[in-house]
């Protein structure tokens, strides 16, 4: 009897493992949910219980996942192409760098070289509904149609953010206005409709992209085409929820002392009535997310009823993060601080550990490679990212082998979206918000965790996020008193390594974006910051290597404004050779 029980237990364990693997010979289905401006650090994920039930508890959360450009257009193009914004030239949402962005996307040949096209070539049916890109509009929706979709129903500008007056455009049909119906209701109906279409075709695997606009701000458009931002509009049934919720009162929330860099450091402390309004704005964001929570629940139920859930990967993330009150900022994104760039990422599916939290460093530029790998498609040589480790063995290996950095970049203006009244000469638009940054985190031993940034006015920021997780003390501010040593090395030696790493990353291409230290040390003996801090490299980094700087501020990618370029001006640790000579 003991032997029988033992055999039974072993059989049950083996069955459970096999049940979590993709069905043999059949490619997995993929559902991708992309919210708009959803935060991680303001605790929005604590208010979506159905997502927790179906995704967080049944999948893996990647707590160190980052967008590389904290703005809708550039972030989404990076996500769908696997290329950083400096390699797509989609760098803003305003002319000339982002207006008619879809036409820039087309002109660069990206409409034939992005994820849905590659998936279709691999035998997938592909569907999409919701927001695709900014400036994909009622005027240019067919110039040309976005390629690669079996079925599509896109939100169109200028009504993308008009919750109660949205325009949608289905397949090759003309746009249709929907007055008086909350766009979140429409997106849910359209998404579930496409899911039914996909399920009905059992001969082909499917990919479905679902892109709600929640919790993005609502845009009011009056009869004279005057536009103004306000809080998102939740469904009526959710409008009463969370009456006592407040923006988390973290140390960087509306602080008594100035913090941040460049224009952020000059902001005045918010008055009590402004804080009260921003708490209301925050509650409306949480309420608007309830429709997304219910949508995910319905997607899971449809997949389960069709007996497809066990062979489907579900990926949940946001295009960028969001701040409300941190460093005294009004509601918005577009900065390099943690609230804006560290975003939710949850993946559920065959072989993905349940209820786990991963420490590996990942970014949006890694998502296209990840999806292609899931679909069994060879990865492209021109990707700027690398596939995300999903299984436990892959994640364990990644702790020792995977890169530890994220490239962060931004060009153009910053906008405050809350609709709040500004005082004391403040404005809802900041003209010079161009910067280059990086995040670097020691996953293996947690010895270091830095954010390093250079604004286009050449102001520098450095935060030691092991001791200063809320980024309150800029160690490179003129009034700062930085430590004499970090990681057992002189402070200036550590800064010089971070600057050289950013020098490579700010214009990197392809594999160099994943392995930047190899560009500096072609011998291959330096893979991370700790290796680079070897004392024998001090002269190379401190005295010889060019430093990152801007010549001037520009609203987009203008090479001669961006200072030295590693490809032409950078040095390698090889007898002082230049990168151009080496390559």
UniProtKB/TrEMBL annotation:
Organism per entry: Triangularia verruculosa
Keywords: Hydrolase, Signal
Domain of life assignment: Eukaryota
Positions where 3-oxoalanine (Cys) occurs in the chain: 72
Protein name: Arylsulfatase
Modification note: The conversion to 3-oxoalanine (also known as C-formylglycine, FGly), of a serine or cysteine residue in prokaryotes and of a cysteine residue in eukaryotes, is critical for catalytic activity.
CDD domains in the record: G6S
Leader peptide range in chain numbering: 1-19
A biological process from GO: phenol-containing compound metabolic process
MF-aspect GO terms: arylsulfatase activity; glycosaminoglycan binding; N-acetylglucosamine-6-sulfatase activity
Domain spans labelled Sulfatase N-terminal: 28-377
Family: Belongs to the sulfatase family.
EC number: 3.1.6.1
Record field: catalytic activity: an aryl sulfate + H2O = a phenol + sulfate + H(+)
PANTHER family: N-ACETYLGLUCOSAMINE-6-SULFATASE FAMILY MEMBER, SD21168P
């Amino acid at each position: 009897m003991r032997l029988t029980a033992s055999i039974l237990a072993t059989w049950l364990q083996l069955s459970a493992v096999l049940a979590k693997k993709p069905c043999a010979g059949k490619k997995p289905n993929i559902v991708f949910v992309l919210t708009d401006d959803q935060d991680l650090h303001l605790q929005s994920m604590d208010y979506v219980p159905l997502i927790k039930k179906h995704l967080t508890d049944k999948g893996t959360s990647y707590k160190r996942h980052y967008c590389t450009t904290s703005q809708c257009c550039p972030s989404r193009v990076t996500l769908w192409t696997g290329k950083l914004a400096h390699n797509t030239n989609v760098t803003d949402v305003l002319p000339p760098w982002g207006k008619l962005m879809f036409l820039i996307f087309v002109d660069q040949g990206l409409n034939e070289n992005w994820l849905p096209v590659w998936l279709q070539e691999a035998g997938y049916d592909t569907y999409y509904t919701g927001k695709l890109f900014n400036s994909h509009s009622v005027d240019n929706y067919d110039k040309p149609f976005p390629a690669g979709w079996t079925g599509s129903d896109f939100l169109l500008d200028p009504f993308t953010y008009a919750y109660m007056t949205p325009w949608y455009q289905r397949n090759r049909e003309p746009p249709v206005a929907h007055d008086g119906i909350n766009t979140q209701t429409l997106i849910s109906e359209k998404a579930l409709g496409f899911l039914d279409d996909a399920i009905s075709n059992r001969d082909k695997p499917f990919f479905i992209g679902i892109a709600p606009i929640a919790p993005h701000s609502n845009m009011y458009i009056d009869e004279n085409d005057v536009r103004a931002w306000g809080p998102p509009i939740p469904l009526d049934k959710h409008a009463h929820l969370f009456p006592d919720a407040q923006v988390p009162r973290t140390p960087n929330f509306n602080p008594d002392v100035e913090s941040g860099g460049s224009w952020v450091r000059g902001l005045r402390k918010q008055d009590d009535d402004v804080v009260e309004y921003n708490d209301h704005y925050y509650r409306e964001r949480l309420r608007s997310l309830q429709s997304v929570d219910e949508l995910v629940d319905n997607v899971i139920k449809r997949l389960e009823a069709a007996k497809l859930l066990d062979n489907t990967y579900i990926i949940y993330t946001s295009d960028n993060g969001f701040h409300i009150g941190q460093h005294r900022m009004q509601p918005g994104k577009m900065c390099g601080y943690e609230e804006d760039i560290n975003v939710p990422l949850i993946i559920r599916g065959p072989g993905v550990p349940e209820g786990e939290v991963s420490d590996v460093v990942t970014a949006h530029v890694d998502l296209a490679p990840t999806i292609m790998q899931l679909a069994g498609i060879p990865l492209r040589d021109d990707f700027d990212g690398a596939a995300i480790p999903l299984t436990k063995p892959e994640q364990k290996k990644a702790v020792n082998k995977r890169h530890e950095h994220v490239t962060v970049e931004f060009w153009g203006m910053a906008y405050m979206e809350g609709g709040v009244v500004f005082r004391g000469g403040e404005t809802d638009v900041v003209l010079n918000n161009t910067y280059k940054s990086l995040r670097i985190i020691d996953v293996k031993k947690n010895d270091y965790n830095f954010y390093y940034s250079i604004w286009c006015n050449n102001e520098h920021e450095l935060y030691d996020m092991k001791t200063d997780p809320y980024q309150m003390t800029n160690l490179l501010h003129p009034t700062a008193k930085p430590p004499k040593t970090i990681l057992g090395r002189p402070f200036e030696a550590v800064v010089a390594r971070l600057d050289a790493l950013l020098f490579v990353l700010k214009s990197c291409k392809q594999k160099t974006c994943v392995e930047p230290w190899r560009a500096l040390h072609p011998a291959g003996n330096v893979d991370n910051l700790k290796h680079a801090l070897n004392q024998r490299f001090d002269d190379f980094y401190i005295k010889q290597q060019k430093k990152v700087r801007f010549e001037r501020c520009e609203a987009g990618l203008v090479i001669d404004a961006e200072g030295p370029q590693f490809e032409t001006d950078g040095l390698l640790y090889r007898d002082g050779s230049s990168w151009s000579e080496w390559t």
